[in-house]
Amino acid sequence: MHSADAVETIQREMTVFARRARAAAGRMHPELSLVSYTLLGHLEESGGCRATDLAAHYALDKSTVSRQVAGLERAGLIERRPDPADQRVQVLHLTRSGRDVLAQVTESRRAAFRERLAGWPEEDLRRFAEYLVRYNT
Predict the structure, then answer these.
(1) DSSP at 93
(2) Which one, of 106, 80, 102, 83, lies nearest residue 93 by Cα?
(3) What is the pLDDT of residues 88-111, one digit of tens each?
(4) pLDDT of 47-63, one tens digit each?
(5) pTM of the entire structure?
(6) Helices (H), the chain
(7) CA quadruple 101, 107, 111, 114: dihedral positive or negative?
(8) How are beta strands 86-94 and 78-83 bridged, if at all?
């Protein structure tokens, strides 16, 4: 396979992967889009942050993040709290319900990955993981 063909195949397969990920996120928790799931995960990892930080981190438009945040607040999955260092700043945090939903969806996603990769040899799994990390870096 020539490098141009390989790049075309990679692009096509990554597109299929992204479509499946969006569809799977919708099946696991219909109210939780892939973007929302990603934002919840970041809030958990960071211990909370501002909406502008989310937009900057994921290179998303502020209005997109604002809509997602509003939906997550309405669903009771996140809440705003004043920043102890600056009371004028609002920091987004997961609620208990948000942590529960995130844990449930994360476990469902892990189970789906384990199922899809069940027959892969250990060396292939290791290489695939390394290639994904390298690609995303």
Answers:
(1) E
(2) 80
(3) 999 999 999 999 999 988 888 888
(4) 999 999 999 998 989 99
(5) 0.76
(6) 3-28, 34-46, 51-58, 62-74, 96-116, 122-136
(7) positive
(8) antiparallel
Cα–Cα distance for residue pair 42/102, rounded to 1 Å: 11
Amino acid, res. 128: F
Helix or strand (DSSP H, E) at 77: none
> Three-class SS of residue 29?
coil
Look up residue 129 and give its two tokens: 């993981």
Count of Cβ atoms closer than 10 Å to residue 27 Cβ: 9
**What is the C-alpha separation between 37 and 51, in angstroms, rounded?**
15
Helix axes 3-28, 96-116, angle to 10 degrees: 130
Tell me the C-alpha to C-alpha distance, in Å, between residue 52 and each of 31, 70, 130.
Answer: 23, 14, 31
Q: Residue 98 carries which side chain, given as an amino acid letter?
A: G
Distances (CA, A) of 55 to 39, 44, 46, 122: 9, 16, 14, 37
